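Most newcomers find our protein records easier to grasp once they have seen one. A record pairs a protein's sequence with a compact description of its fold. An example says more than a description, so a record of this kind follows:
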Amino acid sequence: MTPLTTTTYYHGDHLGSTQLLTAGTGWPVGGDIYYPYGQGPMPGTNHYLFTDKERDAESQLDYFGARYYASNMGRFMSPDWSAQEEPVPYAKLNDPQSLNLYSYVLNHPLVGIDPDGHACDNANEMAVCHGITVAISNGMNAADALQAGQQAQQQSSIFSLPVVHAQEEEGPEEAVEEASRPPELRPADVTQMGRVFDMMNPGPLPPQVAASFSGGQYVEVTVGSEGWGMDNARVYGGGSGPVGANGTFYSPTPQVGGIQSMMDLALRPEWGNTATDTVSTYIAPGRTVYVGQIASQGGHWVGGGIQVYVPPPQ
């Protein structure tokens, strides 16, 4: 047997949970679907399941390092602890969720991950636990990123709303050139968010576009003064082009294309987007766009990341 047929590749979702296994040829050979707190698959040949943590076949507990986690209960099996004596380890008095020493990621399982089984005890980890997808490496330290993300959460129930700019629809060549302009991520950009819409409070987007956002929730965002450049922000191929005829969807997270992007962006194969190519883009200052979490489309097409919808020019 050749390595091409014996090698298995793992594909994770936005939390790192194994969603799909493919052979060396790219053909799917297995996969798993999870409930919000990780319950679902039984460990077989693959022991690394929810958020890429190892699941014990006998106890069905996930090993996080400091503690074991029970996905069927959505909580850790033992209270959190710290190296230094504290009445309530890692507690933040301004966040009641942190007082529960058994809770998982402050009860934000769809957007947060726990790196080591301990509660978040510094700004970088707090940003991870809260599911705040800000680019800390782009000139914003972790403390500012956390503060900006918490301000965003106060304006919207979309937990992982990114603190970002937005981009103008350009042709493919112009988009690649403009995307080289580095975006600045600043807390001030959060104040440019506008109205928040959901199924009970419909917004200006057509129903089919609104349905692509998780729970129909999205927020209206006006692009900041520096514009918004994104590398490899859109995948396309087959029946899909670099710019949509009825508006264009982009991802603030750079895409690699192929089946991984199809899973992350919830692109069902029958829709005709083969995700074989990627294009970068730039949205000019002052443009209005719409941002929210990607809705799952069932099966392996889980979505869960962030998408930006740019309406067609008027």
Notes: The radius of gyration is 20 Å.
